[in-house]
User: Fold these one by one.
Assistant:
Number 1:
Amino acid sequence: MTIFNLGSINIDMVYRVPHLPEPGETLAARELTRGLGGKGANMSVAAARAAARVVHIGAVGDDGLWARDRLMEYGVDHRCISVSDQPTGHAIIAVDDAGENSILLFQGANVGLTEDEISTALTSAEDGDTLIFQNETNMQEEAARMASARGLRVVYAAAPFDAQAVAQVMPLLDLLVLNEVEAAQLEEATGQTIDSLPIRDIVITLGSEGCRWINTDAGSSRSFPAIKVTPVDTTGAGDTFTGYLVASLDRGMGIEQAIMLATRAAAIMVTRLGTADVIPDLKDLEDFVTLKR
């Protein structure tokens, strides 16, 4: 099967700092690296490294052609990535010694997609394929409607969080992935508890505490612990988790097995500095299990 990812592509500028800057503070960075990032690109790379076939739907400017090519090198089908007259999206990321981060995001070409581009990209989609999308592009509701009409599994990683955006696509979703803060914000915005939402499967990530899976059809909930590691950089860990989760489901795994594999990938990711360029592959996950024994 195929995963179609309507997702952002960013140029990540990552600065290592002794602590996250306070308002008005000028802070010298110890190190600067540039790499491929954006929630969409991260998830595409993670899903491809989890052995899924991934078609990325997105846009870059002329300054980001290398990012499109990098996705191809990582096994992502890049033929539905258009070249915009807008600059490529980018993120300024500060990472402190505890691995926590602060991110300033410029959307750029990520929000210039057209309905025709989405429709063309989904022409080859078949019943049983998957659409995943996040909140760093436009055309989310339109893509979800097209995908649902074609019989695709529709997955939404609701970050950066926007309650109105979630409400617009909620009836079309098969799986919603969000973190603990976003879940609380969604409950406040809708006046509903998470387990009463009209979405069959909901996964709430809890950082170092793992995650919780809610199946609203069965009225059940199960918690999954995180794997204890020493964090270096938490940037991209949630995207890695989601990419692996969706890829594992696409490969026919049950959701519990998929969550456990995704948890392992996220644990490895937080021990690495960087984003898409350092996302682990399946061999890394196998080696990690061996080391933990």
Number 2:
Amino acid sequence: MPAVASIEELREVDGRVKEFQASYPEAYQALVDLLRKYRRVGYKNVAKLLMNESTPEKLKGEASS
């Protein structure tokens, strides 16, 4: 399935990923390992947790008021 993003955006992201990998090889590998391990959870959910935009409870719809 083709990406929704434009080729320019994809190239920009690819460049930034390569910069991150070169600058922080250990952190990069740890992030890759985390994404691989929890691929089934979904990249969007992992991203929301990484950026503190959500909690496991909110993602599951169990957030208390």
